[in-house]
Amino acid sequence: MHTTEEVKETAVLVAVQTQKQTAEQTKEYLDELAFLADTSQINTLYTFTQKLEKPDTRTYVGKGKMQDIIAYVVDNDVDMVIFDDDLSPVQIRNIETEFAKFQHEVKILDRSLLILNIFAMRAKTVQAKTQVELAQQQYILPRLTRMWTHLSKQRGGVGMRGPGEKELETDRRIANDRIVFLKEKLKQIDKQAFTQRKNRDRMVRVSLVGYTNVGKSTLMRRLAKAEVFAENKLFATVDATVRKVTFDTIPFLLSDTVGFIRKLPTMLIESFKSTLDEVREADILLHVVDISHPNYEEHIEVVNSTLTEIGAADKPTILVFNKIDLFSSEEVVINDWEIGSGNEPENQQSRIEKVTAFLKNSYMNNPQPQTVFISAEQKENIEELRETIVKAVKEKHILIFPNWLNEVHYSTDELEEEEE
């Protein structure tokens, strides 16, 4: 009999703890890397960390730590080693050379390559697939040298270049030609997308932004009442999705785009700039934050930094703290009641009410940006968020249509569209 169950590849994770980060931060980064690996159907067996001023320029980690990694990988027949930072072509070649001494073939991945793999898995539309392939080609191009090292040694004679160098030049030319082709293809797709957006200029545009896996797609489903793919995986959404929504007779466009993450590969930001136009050209941003995550404040900083990078940091923003049903805080007492685990169904509603009251009285409830505390999964406080959105949309809507209050309202027919 043959099993149909998919066999996961195995991996060990490697990170360097520099002077700029604490042990807790390093652990959190590795947990996120493990989540990325799991999203790619990779099973993490072990993690290695080393304290260094900066990653070793030769093999990322020191010689002794590299020997420990090799010993574990060889003994446990591990399929790949994943590093939490980008590796240079020299580092990849040196690491592979170290493993070759033990006659053990292993895949060497860095964080960027792992993220690129997930984007390739998630991309559905022609635009997203083209953007991902462009990012892949830009990643591969500077790393082509190591692929032909074994052939470059076969030199014919004085003044003669080895076949490895010929193959390398050929591959470089192919990669460069492909990059040019993909960029031209994206320009054509961007023109079509620009035309679509231009046709929607008379409507207020609201865009969901946030760290990956904070619940943006689930919230999109709640607000737009439309089927949008949502999953407890990193980068569940890669393609931009746009829906027409009507609140209080005012129609507006709600878009959901790719989530952000720390150390997001530069080539991905470049490739996805056209998709991120939905964010850049939005009138209002809904910045969704997973308040149950221990490092949600750092996630906010990552998102704000990325928004600055794409030129969207000055947009009117509503800060939406999501997953309040999962929020936990030790030794917090609200109205003389301690917030419990909330595992019991009959206590869940009471607990959410206590958490909401606590958060609204905390430093997180600021007027700028305006803040709302919700649970998209449990449909808690969604109505309050709707009212906040309506108020913000009305302010923008009146700027577009100054006589709106004196005119007949729009038809509220439901239309849906998805970016292709």
TrEMBL record:
The gene is hflX. It comes from the Bacteria. Belongs to the TRAFAC class OBG-HflX-like GTPase superfamily. HflX GTPase family. The keyword Nucleus does not apply. Residues 165-192 form a coiled coil. It holds the Pfam family GTP-bdg_M. Gene3D superfamilies: 6.10.250.2860, GTPase HflX, N-terminal domain, P-loop containing nucleotide triphosphate hydrolases. Monomer. Associates with the 50S ribosomal subunit. GTPase that associates with the 50S ribosomal subunit and may have a role during protein synthesis or ribosome biogenesis. CDD domains: HflX (cd01878). Keywords: Coiled coil, Cytoplasm, GTP-binding, Magnesium, Metal-binding, Nucleotide-binding. Residues 204-397 form the Hflx-type G domain. It is found in: Cytoplasm. PANTHER family: GTP-BINDING PROTEIN 6-RELATED, GTP-BINDING PROTEIN HFLX. This is GTPase HflX. It comes from Arcicella aquatica. SUPFAM superfamilies: P-loop containing nucleoside triphosphate hydrolases. PROSITE patterns: G_HFLX, RAB.
